[in-house]
Amino acid sequence: MSLRPRVAFFGSPAFALPVLEAIRAQFEVVLVVAQPDKPVGRGLKLTPPPVAAHAAGLELPLAQPRKLRNNAAFETQLRDSGADVAVTCAYGKLLPGSLLAVPRFGFLNTHTSLLPAYRGAAPIQWALIRGETVTGTTIMQTDEGMDTGPVLLQEALPIAPHWTSAELADALSTQAARLIVQALAELGRLSPVPQDHAQATHAPMLVKEDGFVRWADSAGAVVNRFRGVAAWPQTTAFLGGARLKLGGLRVQEGGQGQPGEVLRVDEGGLTVACGEGAVTVATVQPEARKAQPAALWAQAAGVRPGTRFDLWQPAGP
């Protein structure tokens, strides 16, 4: 299209803020849509998601519908905003077909994987857990499926070996901001490419058990899982049934022993054997206490070489 499109932006977490700001710098944002406020913290204070708080601070038109399906009032609000196109970035809800049809150019989605790989709610986390060395951002035309629409733009991003989910999210947010601006500038001239659905892989929402250490896995797999769950639910191990949060995991060359067996305790941390190789743990946080250097915790807890962490494996199908 020859004129700059007017944009409705759908997003909720802090990840989406750089994308919103990149769009605002070059296009008119006529409506911001975020998830409803939610209780947060011990006091359960009703708190807006970061995108909603940011939009309110900028005095941008803001909507926080509790549901999208069969919501004629919200569809009317979107239509009346005059948006030519809508952009979603980590919004967190599936969009009904009736809503997708409202803007003239439909909805564009910024997805943090190279679709059709890692469709779903947690592509950043699962790419790390699975040991990927490359991921990327896809700008797609949204349809009613879960990340199944045709691809408009796509760009790869190498994953640094030390990155956790937080660092990877920062890099992908920057990449997504740049690509969505390019897509909006070329709106109506991009050629949609259908996805190969037979090649699709999935990235479901994380649950607490995804953070439990599988000591029988290889050291590399244990560290990859630690990187993927670093933001939430974090890495949890068990010793005598007690839960412990582990931090600063890294592969330790040359370690050998039974899975979960403590091989060494020194200033560098706690070295624990895995199914193949070993990992060093930098910090340990017992329940209801602060994180502390692993060696200090081990000394106080009577943990020494030969101590074995509990083995945990996911339940079978």
From TrEMBL:
Residue ranges occupied by any Formyl transferase N-terminal domain in the UniProt entry: 6-184
Positions of the Formyl transferase C-terminal domain: 206-299
Reactions mediated catalytically: L-methionyl-tRNA(fMet) + (6R)-10-formyltetrahydrofolate = N-formyl-L-methionyl-tRNA(fMet) + (6S)-5,6,7,8-tetrahydrofolate + H(+)
Chain residues that bind (6S)-5,6,7,8-tetrahydrofolate: 113-116
Entries under Pfam families matching the protein: Formyl_trans_C (PF02911), Formyl_trans_N (PF00551)
GO cellular component: cytosol
Superkingdom to which the source organism belongs: Bacteria
GO function term, MF aspect, one: methionyl-tRNA formyltransferase activity
InterPro entries: Fmt (IPR005794), Formyl_trans_C (IPR005793), Formyl_transf_N (IPR002376), Formyl_transf_N_sf (IPR036477), Formyl_transferase-like_C_sf (IPR011034), GART_AS (IPR001555), Met-tRNA-FMT_C (IPR044135), Met-tRNA-FMT_N (IPR041711)
Signal peptide: none
UniProt keywords, alphabetically: Protein biosynthesis, Transferase
Gene3D superfamilies: 3.40.50.12230
EC number(s) on file: 2.1.2.9
Annotated PANTHER family: METHIONYL-TRNA FORMYLTRANSFERASE, METHIONYL-TRNA FORMYLTRANSFERASE, MITOCHONDRIAL
Family the entry assigns: Belongs to the Fmt family.
Role this protein plays: Attaches a formyl group to the free amino group of methionyl-tRNA(fMet). The formyl group appears to play a dual role in the initiator identity of N-formylmethionyl-tRNA by promoting its recognition by IF2 and preventing the misappropriation of this tRNA by the elongation apparatus.
Protein name per UniProt: Methionyl-tRNA formyltransferase
Species of origin: Deinococcus arcticus
Gene: fmt
